[in-house]
Design goal:
The complex is a heterodimer. Chain A contains 7 helices and 6 strands. By secondary structure, chain A is α/β, with parallel strands linked by helices. Chain A has a single domain, classed as P-loop containing nucleotide triphosphate hydrolases (Rossmann fold, 3-Layer(aba) Sandwich). A 6-stranded mixed sheet of chain A has the order 2-3-1-4-5-6, sandwiched between helices. In chain B, strands 4-3-2-1-7-6-5-9-8 form a 9-stranded antiparallel sheet, sandwiched between helices. The chains are: A alpha/beta, B alpha+beta. Chain B: It is found in: Cytoplasm.
Amino acid sequence: MSSRKKVLLKVIILGDSGVGKTSLMNQFVNKKFSNQYKATIGADFLTKEVIVDDRIVTMQIWDTAGQERFQSLGVAFYRGADCCVLVFDVTAPNTFKSLESWRDEFLIQASPRDPDHFPFVILGNKVDLDNRAVSAKRAQQWCQSKNDIPYFETSAKEAVNVELAFQTIARNALAQETEAELYNEFPDQIKLNANDNNRNRDGDNCAC
Amino acid sequence: MSCSSTEDLPDQYKELFTQDGVLLKACIGRPISDLNSIGMLCVVQNSDGTKCIEWRPNDLITIDSDTQDQEWAVVNTIGRRQRTLSGNMTSDYAAARARIVRIPLAELKTFKVTRNNQQMQFSTKSGVWQNTFYFQHGNAEIFVAYLKNHVKTAKTRHDRNTYVVVESNIDSQALNKSFTELDIFTENTTDVVWSLVSNFKQRPYETTMEAFSKLTDIVWSVLVYYGNEGLNGKRDVSEEVADLLTKSMSALEDTTSITKSDEYEVITVKPTLPPRPCIPRGTPLSTEKWEGLQDTEGRILEVEGVKQLIFRGGVAHSIRPAVWKYLLDYYPWRSTHSEIRKIQKRKTEEYFSMKLQWRSITERQESRFSEYRERKSLVEKDVNRTDRSHPFFAGDNNPNVLLLQDILMTYVMYNFDLGYVQGMSDVLAPLLLLLGNEVDSFWCFAGFMEKIASNFDMDQAGMKQQLLNLQQLLTFAVPDLAKHLASKDSGNMYFCFRWLLVWFKREFSFSDIMRLWEVLWTGLPCANFHLLICVAILDAEKDVLISKDYGFNEILKHVNDLSMCLDIDKILSTAEGIYHQLMSAPHLTDQIRIILGIPTAANNPNDRNEESESEDLGDEEPGRENARNQANGYTRI
């Protein structure tokens, strides 16, 4: 972990159309929100330097189009991903139901070395809205059932938990990277650490 | 002596094209003594804009300058006219003058090329060949190629050597006059010069000297013409042509390698593209011109002419609402005012009945109709983030945003199989902004969607095909960039996805995208011209992409960041230049021909450098004419 080489973490944000992928990315990188973001066509990315455990890492965050039919092209951008962020809209149950297929699709297309331990993070976005339709409990249960994926409830609009979520994303991605470097020397330990962190934070941020 | 009183020719006319070494073989109404004399065949433009084919005996030229070789005839004729004007006329000169043969282009009905490109016959009356000319150098095809810039021709089915003039004297209207000028520029300059250069390259031994002299001749005639005229003062064309020639020659040196053996040398030519002509954009179709194009009942008859004009310069903003309805197949071009009123009525009813279909779905129905619900939700999400920074769509509860939604929802009922796909709201927004009217916008949108429906395929097959075709075009047109992209995992061209999906909507301002779209809607000058737009943009970025050694990520970022930084006129002009480069490339492949919708070599063995008559030929003719005919849906007789 003391390696001083420059680290680039590639993070892919996936989720149904309109759940707030572009907004989350912009809130994290540029610290601003606009309701005038256009629907993403094709793909784009932003980069941001963050400090994780005293290491400076560059996060390269990829945003793709959410409509299902565009995914067959989006896969070109999955290659080499260090972490995948799955986003749903807490006011739209369909977007929550889609998480499963987004996750499966990503694992098939990106074919990471160790799919069972590939770091995902789930974001339930738009918690600033009143018409919530997916409870935090339901989301957490699903995340636990999927090998304890860290879950955050966010609002890109009001910058709720965005920074924290991306910190976790960076840490988990870095852990994955280190794991790969170390040839899984201590895989369990690292994973447990990551999960512990997230459980604690989940507790803090749970909206229920 | 005033020249106007003694000459039967108009005072001022200019030679547009000249070909020497042409014998007058037969001419109805001329004494035998006039025949079998050598001279030059020209296309000249009179002061009133009309054009003639003119044959002039060499005596006329040598009177002025006996000492000069006929290969330099064009230069001489300039000298002659100046001397004529200064009053230096002799009786011999007058006699020679009388032997000039003139065929007004307006009267030309058919012409024919026979004897291995050595003979041309012209007719102004069906059934009779009034004039026969013999081309000493066997190069009548050059004259034909030039002539086709001035008259619209079709080949007859039974005789591939005979051309029928389907639209005589396309100079008679102001509209077409401007085309002709452009055609001279776009086709004559590069095409003729290039065909000579490429001939030269392909048959170096037989044609070296001959080709060189011909080339000089033609370049001179071009120089002289543009030297006199200029082209709207926009650029110095003579310089351009000289530059072109220099480039061709140096390209020739660069790309030929010579293998010597005892008896002969083998010269191999590495294929490179001809130089790219720089084609200036025209002015937008004006209100006056547009009104002038309609007959008393409102029909537009000169459809191809209108499309050409729009391709050249776009449409003036004030008449866009009218013209777009035709371009987007809402109104048929040849419909009268009263027919249009009927169409409007019918289409309005049709629109509102489709709108009523989804408007009458109750909430309870909706709750059991998940597919409909999903589409509706997607439309709502997207209209609320479509061009909201533009004043027309800005602000809360903007009625125009609702209109976007209504039109897109109605489109879902119009084409339920396709439904709503992201990108459609982007395509619709400029239409609604311009037309303002819900029904008109819907039908124009439906017409636009007809053209780009495959972009929205569920399996994205249409997009994948276009990305592949783009890669193929780029490999042919800008090979070094294509190679760089391939080496950076970007050969799939995914970074152009956004450009293609919504036809560059995200890359340009509203006013620029309107210009680009109306040009693309004409379908000119070939199929898939939008891919050449991509090639043009990438070509301009080539140096940056290669010199900075950009990889996959940087390429995508760079391309995405070009949005709103692109010059539409420059891009259109470059894309057209690339089109002409491809068309005159001797090594154009079938793959590229198919992409651009022009006949393949298999259908078209009469390649531009092939002069043999013995081949079994289809009705096709080479290169550009084909592309144009096909693109225009112009039927050959």
